[in-house]
C-alpha cells in the first residue's frame, strides 16, 4: 500500500482517502495505541509535501493516526473525517462540473439511467401461432413448400399497448422524404431505431411476393391470395435522427462473406428467415443456392411433416442463412424415450440443445419467443416445466409470465457468457410481434379487416420498449435488443387477415404478416445497428428497431 501511495499524485490519493472507511487508516493496535498505521504514515507524508507546494483540499488531512475512528489534532487542525469528506466531495463535484477532462471519466448526472425492475409482459392468453397445415411434400416440392407450418388450434398470448404507452398520436405521412435525414445528422449517441415514423416509399417492396416462390411459403405470400390491396408494401421505417441506408443484396452478401446467420424461434422467426432469403436472392429463383441443412442435422425425421429447420448457403460468398424451430428456446428432454406419446421436460434454465451444439459456427444470432407461453400450448406439446433439473412445483414460478421471464433472462445470460469465447458472434433477442384481433380472438370471430395504412398514426415516440420482459432480460449483457413491438403495432393492415390460398376456414390470421411487408424491416434494423460507427453491443444492449428489412442493415459492418 505504501508503494501505491508514493506512486500516485497526492491529489488523487486525497480524493481516494475521502472515499475510504476510517478503519483502513487505523493501526492494528489502534485500541491500545495512537500510533499511525503504515497507510496513514505514507498518506500523511505525501499529503503534507503536496500541501506545502499546492495548498489543495485534502492536504489538511495530514494524517497522524486515529483513535475510535476520529482524526487526531494535526498542526492545530481538528477536522473530523466527516467534515473532510464533505469538503473533498464538494470540490470533486465542483471540478466535475467545471473541468472537461473529468466529464470524460464521469458522465454528467443527466446521463445516468434508472433501471426499472423486471415487469411481466402485458399479455393475455388468446390466439393461435400456426393456423395452417403442412401438406406432405413430394420430391418436386420447393423449399418454400417444405417450410409450411403445421396446424394448431391452440391459443397464443396477445401483447397489447395500454393507453399510457400508446406508440402514436400523429397522422400518416404519405410522402417519401429524405430531407429528415439531411436535417438530422447522426450524433455520437446511441441510435434508438424503434423511435421514428413510417413514411411512404414507392421503392418498396424489396422483392416480389409473387416471384419469390423458392423461399416464400404460399400461406404467407399475400400476392398469391385473393387480396387486391397491397398499399401496405409501400412504406419504410425512418428512425428518428438515424441514417438508414438502402439495402443492396450484393453489398449484403459481400459483407456477410464466410459468415453464418442463425435465426432460432417460433413461426414468426420462420417468417423472418424466409423474408431474409428473398432479400438475399433478390426475390428470384436461385438454383445455385445450396441446401446445407444436413451439415446442421436439419433433416426430416421418418414420419415428420418437416425438418426442425433449414439452412442454405450462397456459394459465391460462402454466406449461410439458417432457421431452427424452437418455440420456447428451452432444452426439451423426453421423460420416457421408449414412449412415442411421452411428455417432455422443458428446462426453463437451459438453452435449446441446437444452440449449444452450433453456437461456435454462428456470426449472427437472432432469438425470439413469446406466443407459445400459455397453458394450451404446453398441454398440446406435452411440455412440463423444469428448473434446476427437477419439476417445478412452486406455483409462482409455474405462472406462465414468470416462466417466460426466467427463460429469457437465463438464455440472455448464457449467450452473454459465451461471447468471450466466440468474439465473432453478434447476438440479438427480438421482442414480441403484436397481434391485432378485434371483436374476438382467433377462434371466437376476431378479425383484422383494416386495409388503410397507418390508420392509428405513423410515429413511435416512447423510449422504452413495449416488451419490458425482453428489454430487461438483455440489460447488463452484450446481447442486443431487436425491438420491433411498437413500430409493428402501427401496421395492423399488414396481417394475412382473412385471405388464404385455399378455401377460407372462417378464422383470420392477425398474428402473422403478409410477405413482403412488415417483416423486411426487422432485417434493416439489425443491419443498421452494425453500420453505426459508435455502436457496439457491449456498450449499448438495447437496439430498437424497424419491422424484417432491418436485420441485413445491422449486419453490414460485421
Automatic annotation (TrEMBL):
Superkingdom, natural source: Eukaryota
Low complexity bias locations: 140-154, 164-176
Residue stretches spanning the membrane: 76-96
Biased composition (Basic and acidic residues): 177-188
Cellular component aspect of the GO annotation: Golgi membrane
Claim: Transmembrane is one of the keywords in the record: yes
Membrane association type: Single-pass type II membrane protein
Name of protein: Trichome birefringence-like N-terminal domain-containing protein
